[in-house]
Amino acid sequence: MGRHTLEYPKSKTNTVRRKADRATYALSAIHSLINASHFLDVAFNPPDDSPFPTILPMIGHMGSFDRPSADLGDPLDLYLHGYVSSRMMNLARSSASSSQGGDDEEEKQGQGQQQQQGLPVCIAASHVDALILATSPFNHSYNYRSATLFGHATLVTDDAEKLYAMELITNGIVPGRWAASRQPPTPAEMQSTSILRVAVASGSAKFRDGGVRDDRHDLEDDEAQGRVWTGVLPVFTRIGEPIPTGYSKVETPADVKDFVREYNRENEEYVFAAAKK
Amino acid sequence: MGRHTLEYPKSKTNTVRRKADRATYALSAIHSLINASHFLDVAFNPPDDSPFPTILPMIGHMGSFDRPSADLGDPLDLYLHGYVSSRMMNLARSSASSSQGGDDEEEKQGQGQQQQQGLPVCIAASHVDALILATSPFNHSYNYRSATLFGHATLVTDDAEKLYAMELITNGIVPGRWAASRQPPTPAEMQSTSILRVAVASGSAKFRDGGVRDDRHDLEDDEAQGRVWTGVLPVFTRIGEPIPTGYSKVETPADVKDFVREYNRENEEYVFAAAKK
Questions:
Q1: Which of left, alpha, beta for B190 (phi over 0: left; psi -120 to 50: alpha)?
Q2: What's A20-97+116-276's CATH class?
Q3: Where are the domains of chain A?
Q4: Could you tell me which residues belong to the region Disordered (chains A, B) (predicted)?
């Protein structure tokens, strides 16, 4: 309240063209959607002569190592969890070193950005909230929320930042899980895990809520209205009853049960409320 | 039974490098995962001078217009639903015309493929099946199934094929929905809807099932096993109680209720069974 709502500036890269009234550029909305996704799809162009971009599903979370108290509406980096050996990590490592001193890309972008090192990536997170079954098949739709980020990915080399990102990502899966699991990390664990930091260049989000939107001619079509059922099928992600390993001496803790209950309640409430908008 | 299981040939583009034992190249497995996804993430390189690939969430389904009786283990095309005005459709249209007669790309790929027109795309579908909470944060994982396809997208211009694809995609959302909704399409509906056909060049899928896999030193760590709860949180997509529009004269039909019940039963059973493997 009383604060500015920061937005990613619109450019050729991030501007939503189709149904622009469903778009938002607010950092808080975009960052929330990214954080609410179990998987993020990360697209990049591999170094070989393949004509195809590649998508890898990865786990990630928004954060700021320099200002850990930053909130979701602030400028943030995206931290991605990966593996030393993967193609993408190698690319991020080599882009970081090979682009040092070059500023061609900055000039090409022409948006007054600082020199950007790293691998250009696009990140997408999508949530389906309902199947919209209309009278005409052509008015069928989904309620959904989707976010897209564009940025440059580089390997995190500083151990303190790596730890910060691992804690961030682990707590993003289940709140408080980092402290609740075995600490501290072993040197081998630190070595075998890689973290990518994506410096975000721009982003956007798009959503649909509400119910069926039929054309007038279908609403006035007595034959169709007498034959075609129309309505909304709400869709949500649910976490089932926890399955303990059995070898841990600990009973399923209250905070795990609370997390599951709250996660399910929030998801289900959201999609029913969105369908009624 | 008694049939060959067709697989996409391994190449630089589609070979899974990390944890290769979790990979499959079987057409049936990959095509099933694509069809089971409400959204597909489609990556392509936009025509501007942006360094970033772009991802659009789209709705799609595997099919064969030439051989509609083909099953999921057969070579199939991917049909994607889109809009005439979108950037991607324009690219697919212009790639189709500008690449006619040219075979540079074929030679570059050097894999004996036939001349490929169209926009190079990568398509990804991911399903999270469980959160795996291990003793060490570094052994945390997901159960998941993810599929990736690579191919060339072109606009479908033939009306019969467009109708075939619309029926395929509509029935992919709710089985039988095409015939159960208002028919036939109006000329305006046919005009305003575009379909992309992706000629699939290669693909792969990757999955994890089972429970927590802890390191021996963590299993033997009494302090950790006395303090850290470990287990599996199963994750599944659920469809809630249908919400009728109210203006249709039809009660929620038995086949919609059956679809919702079966969808929920199958999804929930799968993730619990996968966690116990």
A1: alpha
A2: mainly beta
A3: 20-97+116-276
A4: 91-118
Q: What is the pTM of this model?
A: 0.91
Measuring CA to CA, which residue among A182, A161, A163, A153 is closest to residue A64? A161
CB contact residues (below 8 A), chain B span 172-201, against chain A: 173-174, 177-178, 180-182, 185-186, 189, 192-193, 201
**Measured at the alpha carbon of residue B201, what is the angle toward residues B193 and B50, in degrees to the nearest 5?**
65
Length of chain A measured in residues: 277
Q: Spell out the alpha helix ranges (H) of A141-276.
A: 159-173, 177-180, 187-192, 216-219, 222-227, 254-275
Test the B interface: residue of A59, A182, A232, A241 with most B CBs within 10 Å: A182
Per-residue pLDDT of chain B (277 residues; tens, 9 = 90+): 446 789 999 988 888 888 888 899 999 999 999 999 999 999 999 887 789 999 999 999 999 999 999 999 999 999 999 765 567 777 777 765 444 333 444 334 433 344 568 999 999 999 999 999 999 999 999 999 999 999 999 999 999 999 999 999 999 999 999 999 999 999 999 988 899 999 999 999 999 999 999 999 999 999 999 999 999 999 999 999 999 999 999 999 999 999 999 999 999 999 999 999 9
Question: Residue A193 and residue B136: Cα distance in Å, rounded?
Answer: 13
Contact A263, A239 (CB under 8 A): yes
Q: Ramachandran region of residue B38, left (φ > 0), alpha (ψ -120 to 50) or beta?
A: alpha
